[in-house]
Amino acid sequence: MKIATAAYPLDWLDSWAQYEDKLANWVSEAAGQGAELLVFPEYGAMELSTLDGAGVAGDLERSIHAVSDRMEDVTKLHMRLAKEYNLYILGASAPVDAGFRRPVNRAELFTPDGTHDHQDKQIMTRFEREQWDIAPGGPLKLFDTALGRIGVLICYDSEFPLLGRALCDADLILVPSCTEALSGYWRVRIGAMSRALENQCVTVMASLVGSNDWSEAVDMNTGMGGVFGPPDVGFPETGVLAEGALNRPGWTYAEIDLEAIAHVRADGRVLNRKHWSEQEPRVQSVTNCCLKAFEPLK
């Protein structure tokens, strides 16, 4: 299969039609390159807050609810595009009022046959919990699709090995991301590459890019698209199948072979996924040791 992962810039929108045109152009471009799965980044839906004006877009709390209020229309648009172009789309995540204590950070996966489902972020960053008060949502899911088994770890979630291990049966783990600084981008990228190593699968990272003076939440964004696998048989020795250019908007494409994933899991030079359970008895029997330095000779 061919995957397209986005380095996606936010725009100031003056009308819903402008957003429809923007998204249709992005999807059309990737479809024209033969992509079967498109991955948009975390909080890419925040540009929808501009439709309610500068006062709303620049206010943390009001922007959350303004975006959430438009997600039903966003879902309909993505469903139509996925069907029209006969592909899968992981839509940009958004804060969504979904019956929890507070809005959750949710990404939806759309299929060519008109079905869709969502994945909520599990663990909030400091900004999300201390300024936005975004809540953890529903549990992790594994999606069975014609492209293989797909999991989603939204940004910070990719930095936690046990969340990745819960998705160890996934062929693809999608990592939509929104990071302000270069260090944040590399934390998520290192997490995505680590999950590919541990699970002997492919991880797909999408990034928000560019500056937006109209928003307090997504005012500065650093990143690029990337597709990673285990540095083992059937994959590049670096583990990097494809990467974009830092902060340059556009798609990054990669060809993925499910047979290569199956082969490396069965007969790789190392078998991280299979040997994971061997850690457990060893970490449970950690022994405390005390090493004292020698007294200096006199």
Automatic annotation (TrEMBL):
Domain CN hydrolase: 1-258
Database matches in PROSITE patterns: CN_HYDROLASE
MF terms in GO: hydrolase activity
Keyword field: Hydrolase
Entry keyword annotation includes Glycoprotein: no
CDD domains: nitrilase_Rim1_like
SUPFAM superfamilies the UniProt entry points to: Carbon-nitrogen hydrolase (SSF56317)
Keyword Nucleus part of the UniProt annotation: no
Pfam families per the UniProt record, alphabetical: CN_hydrolase (PF00795)
Protein name in the entry: Carbon-nitrogen hydrolase family protein
Organism: Ruegeria sediminis
